[in-house]
Prior knowledge:
The chain has helices spanning about 1-10, 15-25, 30-45, 45-65. By secondary structure, the chain is an all-alpha fold. It is built from four helices and no strands. Helix 1 (about 1-10) runs antiparallel to helix 2 (about 15-25) and helix 3 (about 30-45) runs antiparallel to helix 4. It has one domain (about 1-65).
Amino acid sequence: xxxxxxxxxxxxxxxxLTVHAAANMGIGNDxxxxxxxxxxxxxxxxxxxxxxxxxxxxxAAKQFELN
Length: 67
């Protein structure tokens, strides 16, 4: 989870963030949990990076559902 938050805060690493989101879903963290984590980080990482992170989580959730 720390790596997920760090990559989201860094910005510009959306492909890596999508992979980490999918890995989190693979170990049992659901989409809503990841959205809650991003919501908690929002004041620190800013609105644009939070929106990018949400896009990555949604993309990972779609990929995870297909497998």
